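Fold description:
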Amino acid sequence: MRGKTQHPTIPKPERQIKGKFRPRRPKSRKEEAEFGPGKTDILVCKKCGAFYWYKSWKARLSDYPELKQSKRIKFVLCPACQMIKDKKYEGEIILETVPSDFKEDIKNLAKNYGKRAIVADPMDRIISIKEKRVKRVTAKRKRGATSRKEFKGLKDIR
């Protein structure tokens, strides 16, 4: 049996076939990221003004290390603005039976929380706050979970 090599540990479809290579390895987590592989240009959101470089969206271009270096700039919609346009969201908080004296405080707390979140990560924002019952729609699931901790004193939180 000198001419043929048997590979008992490697399954038949993955064995190297003469003249061909094994199938490509599975994509890494970075390659299968939520927004696809990284772009080489600087992207600017048409709507909110967020900047994209080094595989993530940032609030300010002044943080870019090679600002003097010439790079192409493209104007696009960032993923968060695209979600708002498509009327999609990842998290929702509904506060029911809120005492009227706390309503304004809770609304201000949510707005301030949203301002801090967008500075830390422009893709992480509060999309809307509705008045009838305090309903907060977020662009990230994680924000919904963390703000539940802030509103834990109220009874009806979903």
In short: The two ends are 68 Å apart (CA to CA). The mean pLDDT is 73. Residues 89 and 139 are 5 Å apart (CA to CA).
